[in-house]
Amino acid sequence: AQVRQEARVARDLAGVRVRLLLDTLVDAGQGLRAELALPPVGDRPADLVGTPAPVPAERATSRGRAASDPALLDDLLALPHAHLVVDGYNVSKAAWPSLSLAEQRRRLVDALANVAGRTGAEITCCFDGQEGPRPSGGGARGVRVLFSVGEIADDLIRRLVGAEPRGRVVVVVTSDRQVADDVEAAGARVVPSATLVARVARL
């Protein structure tokens, strides 16, 4: 029975990943068509043989921004179906080191709720937990709060990124170099904790 349940969960996860990736691609394509004001296709490849390729106009992108620039985070979260994954205590201890952990959690989650309201991005905040009941400090509107149980938050973040379909914009906020290297290898973008701290300070 357990094997069948695990197989069913795996199938459900695969289905969710495929549907989410398709939604992301469709929305990105529609957004790009609207942004570039692309007309319906009239020409065919054979019509353009021998025609010099036009030089594309330069467009501002996020590539030129430093990882420490809060505007980079804004650019990434503006992309369709972006998912922001936050290394909770890594951020909160940098932002409010003198406060209790419970107060750090509350302030960070409240700040992330503001980010969620402004951007519409999916936001998941991960904190180190412990065996047994979860610590106090639940989520806020638009923010999924997860506590690691039987593992460290770093591994929870790795699993979250690994569960996402390739092609979805996943942004991980952490200054833990090992976590950053691992999630980048899995396809996520990494933004330092200080960048998010600077971003929420503007709210």
TrEMBL record:
Transmembrane region(s): none
Domain of life per record: Bacteria
Species of origin: Cellulomonas cellasea DSM 20118
The name this protein goes by in its record: RNA-binding protein
Pfam families: NYN_YacP
Region of interest (Disordered), residue spans: 43-64
Secretion signal span: none
